[in-house]
């Protein structure tokens, strides 16, 4: 994981197309495309146009680089614990297939969790006669935190807690270290969806020690749509993959001997990668994206976004707009006062060419390294005018 030893970063808008990032406060929906990522894609397409075959080494070398880069980002010392996946749902489904779950046990999720991290556990519980516990968001002013309520719900029958580090709708931050300690007490799994945090918020697998971490790659990891990463801990070392494909078997580098079928898989998480993960067009784009994320460092992303919020946060509170107390800085769900309608705000935002998302009762504002204080002030003005 990167450290915060370098000076605070300035706005990185020059690394993106101006048209794409102007007024774009919606990075939690999809990241804008870096110039470097687009260039990597163009180079890959150009190479493909001029070459029919693909050297055998290219099936494996870029994959190794991607696994090393993602492992570095999450402070994982074993890159073979990383699998390339096409979506967070694929990684979660792999975890669900391998989670031991007996009749009468329970799996814990939180209210309004992202659907892909809800449906898979709802189905798993239904199939096994288990209970799905959904922990509600604490009401405003509650003495205990959302993490406290999740921890309190864990009991001797808990098989797993499946949760995000940062809630996708409002940016609420969960104390994963506390939840890890509590799950360890009852021998339960901790399964983390890092899609809305990893890349923009620090995540250290040696501190949090999750059994599973999955991330879609097209949000805060700045990659193309259709890519993702999974970390699988020791409980998954001898598990069953979702699919059986040639490249995940031991010795697959030797194309001459692929006809000699192997019972052994590649080491550790190597068995869990999606087929055709040596994507010759996407892999160079993914690598360019991860290199930029590593260059910035998640700590610096948080610091930069905190400076953006400092420009407007007190003014928002004066307008009776509430923000989560424990939250990340790159994804913040604003809850509007009763007299302020989302439709009125949407019209004011459109006038200013500002893009946000609406998730449940929250207006989700998710700035990135390309946004400016002026854009945050425009957001404030839109809210102020919509309040009149």
Can you give me a brief rundown of this structure?
The protein has 388 residues and is of the alpha/beta class.
Question: Could you walk me through the main structural features you see in this protein, from its secondary elements to its overall organization?
Answer:
The protein has two domains: 13-34 and 298-386, Aspartate Aminotransferase, domain 1 (Alpha-Beta Complex), CATH 3.90.1150.10; 44-294, Type I PLP-dependent aspartate aminotransferase-like (Major domain) (Aspartate Aminotransferase, domain 2), CATH 3.40.640.10. Helix content is 35%, strand content 12%. The protein has 13 helices and ten strands. Strand 4 (158-164), helix 7 and strand 5 form a beta-alpha-beta unit. Helix 3 (61-73) packs parallel to helix 9 and helix 4 runs parallel beside helix 5 (116-128). The longest helix is centred in the first third of the chain and has 16 residues, at 35-50. The N and C termini lie far apart (46 Å). The mean pLDDT is 95.
CATH superfamily of the largest domain: Type I PLP-dependent aspartate aminotransferase-like (Major domain)
How many domains, in number, for the residues? 2
Inertia-based shape: globular
CATH C-level label of the largest domain: Alpha Beta
Judged by helices, strands and strand pairing, the structural class is alpha/beta
Radius of gyration: 22 Å
Distance between the termini: 46 Å
The low-pLDDT segments are none
Strand order, biggest sheet?
Answer: 1-7-6-5-4-2-3
**What's the pLDDT, averaged over the residues?**
95
What portion of residues belong to β-strands?
Answer: 5-15%
How many H/I helical runs? 13
